[in-house]
């Protein structure tokens, strides 16, 4: 993309909105057990942050392979955490809340990594 | 309230299908997703509404726009109605007009896809989807741009500018209405 | 063939319409839904019923949904064309 095709309005607006979108994504993930939302929706919002960053500066400076490793680790933890809580035998209300928040956070990390990888693979590697 | 938005959804879906320009269709699809997420909210399903708003309106729209930017093929149909005889001059003229068009394509980061055909202009307009038709009849060259292409005005001004000194007797048309370009 | 497909499609739409507007409650009992809605706060500790269901009652579904996303990402990485083999090094 040449320099003159880049819109100044979009870069300023996204620069202002960037922290708010980030905050909104984390809010949706961490309050998934209290308010509508959850890991999937919050993860999608977090990956939308990366995509809007691509609109401002289309540089290939995101390490996709480390994102991939993070995603696989998150999936392993998503499988492991319910097993762990099942084997330990949770009973109290606090344990259940910890379980829900932990699972929401893991799913959020996994979904945001996955959607970002899909998007950046498509943008940078898919040639015509 | 709900019915208004349902009707609006139908309207935007039909508009997205019927619009000739793909980029406008993508925008209509984004608006359709936004309205549908609001309808989910009215059906008291806020989780689905958030997911639909984020994925349908943001991710899918950006992905479609990037795909459209990547898939920018400029289809050019080239017809000439000259019999053999002065073949070298014809070849030189063809090379010159195509060089002009391809220079425009590299400037706009398009991929020129030139098709040589013996069909007439009306046949091409009816049977194929095209961006530009170049017709050569002896000395005169007629260029016909499609109204659905984004680059009609761009290529018109480009050809006008580049052709000023050459004296190609170039005529430029946009689908039906004609206008004279060049000397 | 085409006409048969259209007739089939129309019949399907008609059945769907009748099921939706003729009362789904008589066709399928929704005791499970009532039980979830009544008990999810004590069972799962969540105040959002959707989260309670997809992280507690139906956690197996969630696991395979996440696996599906992982597999689709792997597929996209496999099928997207590398521009040279150095793609992954700076990617």
TrEMBL record, chain A:
Residue spans crossing the bilayer: 9-30, 36-55, 75-92, 98-124
The UniProt keyword set, sorted, is: Cell membrane, Membrane, Transmembrane, Transmembrane helix
The record's InterPro entries line, in alphabetical order, gives: CPA3_antiporter_subunitB, MnhB
Q: Which GO terms describe its cellular component?
A: plasma membrane
Bilayer topology reads: Multi-pass membrane protein
Q: Where in the cell is it found?
A: Cell membrane
UniProt domain Na+/H+ antiporter MnhB subunit-related protein: residue ranges: 9-117
Q: Would you identify the family this protein belongs to, as annotated?
A: Belongs to the CPA3 antiporters (TC 2.A.63) subunit B family.
Q: What is this protein called in UniProt?
A: Sodium:proton antiporter
Query: What broad taxonomic lineage does this protein's source fall under?
Result: Bacteria, Bacillati, Bacillota, Clostridia, Eubacteriales
TrEMBL record, chain B:
- Taken from the record, one Pfam family name reads MbhD
GO CC annotations on file = plasma membrane
Q: Which residues cross the membrane?
A: 26-43, 50-68
**Keyword Calcium among UniProt keywords:** no
Q: Where is the MrpA C-terminal/MbhD domain?
A: 7-70
Keyword field? Cell membrane, Membrane, Transmembrane, Transmembrane helix
Where it sits in the cell: the answer is: Cell membrane
Q: Which InterPro entries match?
A: MrpA_C/MbhD
Q: How does it sit in the membrane?
A: Multi-pass membrane protein
Q: Which residues form a coiled coil?
A: none
Recorded protein name is DUF4040 domain-containing protein
| Taxonomic lineage from the root | Bacteria, Bacillati, Bacillota, Clostridia, Eubacteriales
UniProtKB/TrEMBL annotation, chain C:
Protein name as catalogued:
Multicomponent Na+:H+ antiporter subunit B
Keywords, A to Z, come to: Membrane, Transmembrane, Transmembrane helix
What highest taxon heads this organism's lineage?
A: Bacteria
Species of origin: Anaerotalea alkaliphila
Question: TM spans, by residue?
Answer: 63-81
């Amino acid at each position: 993309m040449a320099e003159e095709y880049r819109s100044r309005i979009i870069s300023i607006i996204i620069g202002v909105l960037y922290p708010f979108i980030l905050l909104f994504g984390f809010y949706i993930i961490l309050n998934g057990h209290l308010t509508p939302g959850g890991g999937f929706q919050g993860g999608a919002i977090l990956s939308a942050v990366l995509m809007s960053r691509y609109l401002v500066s289309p540089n290939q400076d995101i390490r996709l392979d480390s994102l991939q490793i993070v995603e696989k680790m998150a999936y392993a933890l998503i499988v492991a955490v319910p097993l762990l809580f099942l084997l330990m035998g949770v009973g109290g209300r606090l344990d259940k809340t910890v379980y829900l928040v932990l699972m929401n956070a893991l799913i959020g990390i996994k979904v945001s990594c996955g959607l970002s990888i899909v998007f950046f693979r498509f943008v940078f590697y898919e040639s015509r | 309230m709900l019915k208004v938005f349902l009707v609006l959804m139908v309207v935007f879906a039909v508009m997205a299908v019927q619009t000739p320009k793909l980029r406008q269709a993508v925008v209509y699809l984004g608006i359709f997703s936004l309205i549908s997420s609001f309808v989910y909210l009215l059906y008291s399903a806020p989780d689905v509404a958030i997911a639909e708003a984020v994925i349908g309106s943001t991710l899918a729209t950006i992905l479609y726009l990037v795909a459209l930017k990547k898939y920018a093929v400029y289809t050019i149909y080239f017809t000439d109605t000259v019999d053999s005889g002065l073949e070298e001059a014809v070849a030189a003229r063809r090379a010159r007009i195509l060089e002009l068009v391809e220079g425009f394509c590299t400037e706009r980061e398009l991929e020129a896809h030139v098709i040589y055909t013996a069909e007439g202009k009306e046949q091409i307009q009816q049977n194929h989807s095209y961006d530009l038709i170049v017709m050569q009849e002896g000395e005169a060259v007629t260029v016909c741009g499609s109204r659905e292409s984004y680059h009609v005005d761009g290529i018109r001004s480009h050809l006008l500018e580049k052709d000023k000194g050459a004296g190609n007797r170039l005529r430029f048309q946009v689908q039906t209405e004609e206008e004279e370009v060049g000397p | 063939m085409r006409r048969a497909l259209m007739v089939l499609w129309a019949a399907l739409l008609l059945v769907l319409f009748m099921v939706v507007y003729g009362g789904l409650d008589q066709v399928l009992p929704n005791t499970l839904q009532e039980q979830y809605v009544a008990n999810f706060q004590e069972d799962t500790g969540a105040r959002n019923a959707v989260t309670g269901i997809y992280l507690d009652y139906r956690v197996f579904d969630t696991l395979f949904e996440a696996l599906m996303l992982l597999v689709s990402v792997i597929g996209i990485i496999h099928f997207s064309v590398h521009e040279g083999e150095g793609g992954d090094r700076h990617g």
